[in-house]
Automatic annotation (TrEMBL):
One of its GO terms (biological process) is alpha-amino acid metabolic process. It comes from the Bacteria. Its cofactor is pyridoxal 5'-phosphate. This is Aminotransferase class I and II. Residues 3-261 form the Aminotransferase class I/classII large domain.
Amino acid sequence: MTKPGDTIITESPVYFGILQLARSLGLYVMELPTNMTTGIELEAVKKTLSANKVKACVLMSNFSNPSGSMMPNEHKKEIVRLMDFYNVPLIEDDIHGDLYFGSSRPTNCKTYDESGIVLCCSSVSKTLAPGYRVGWVSPGKFKKEILRAKLYHTISSPTITHEVVGNFLKNGRYENHLRKIRQILNRNCNNYINTVLESFPAGTKVSQPQGGFFLWVELDKKIDTSAFYHLALKHNISIAPGRIFSFQDQFSNCMRLSFGLPWTNELRESIRTLGRLAKSI
C-alpha cells in the first residue's frame, strides 16, 4: 500500500513503534493534532487529505498509546467516511479495545466500514500472552496485499501458539479473564491518578482514560521529561518521556505512565517519589 517516499498521517502523540516502523520503511509521517480525550482532530484530517497525497492513515481509535484517548462513535464514522471518500487505507490498531472500563466494549472504526477501506489489527499481546506474539488483521479489500506481505516477512505463523490461544478463546475462559483484568486495570488507573494528583506539583494535568493501561501526564513547561527520565532512573523508576512519541519538537514536558503493574505500597511510593522530584525542579 505504501512505498518509500510516500506520506502517511497519524495522531500525535503517537506510539513510538509506529514512528520507528514508518522511518524504517522510508515513509514521511504527518502528525496531526490530537485531543487527549476524543482522539485525532477531524478538521485536521479533512484539511490534510484535501491538500496532500496521503497513502495511508494509522491510528488507535480506542485507548490510544500514549494518550489513552478514545474516539467517539460519530468521529469513527466520520473518519471512515473521509478515508473512503479519498480512497486512503485506514490502518486501525485496536489492540486495547477489550480493556474497557465501561459496561460494554467500544466499537472500532471497522464497525462502520462498508467498502473495505479499514484494516483492523489486534492481538492478545496486551490482554493475555505477550510472549506468544499472536495477532490478526481484518484486511478489508486489502487481503491480497496483506497475504503477500506476510509471505515476504514470515511465510507462515507458528501453529502451536495459535492453537493454544485459539483453544483458550473457544472455551470461554478468555472472557472471564478479561473481566478480571479490566477490574484490576480500572482500580489501578484510579489509584495512579489519585496518587499523581496528590503528589505532583499543582497544575499537573493527567488524562482520564476509559480503558487501556496508559496515563498521559503534562507537567509544568519548565520540566524537560527527557532529563526527568534520567533523574527518575537514579531512583530505579522508569517513565516514558513525551518527546519519544513524536518526530517533532513537542511534548517535552509530558510523560507516559503505565498502570499495568499490580498496585502495591511500593508502587505508590515510587509515584510519590516522582512527585517529589518534579517539585524539586
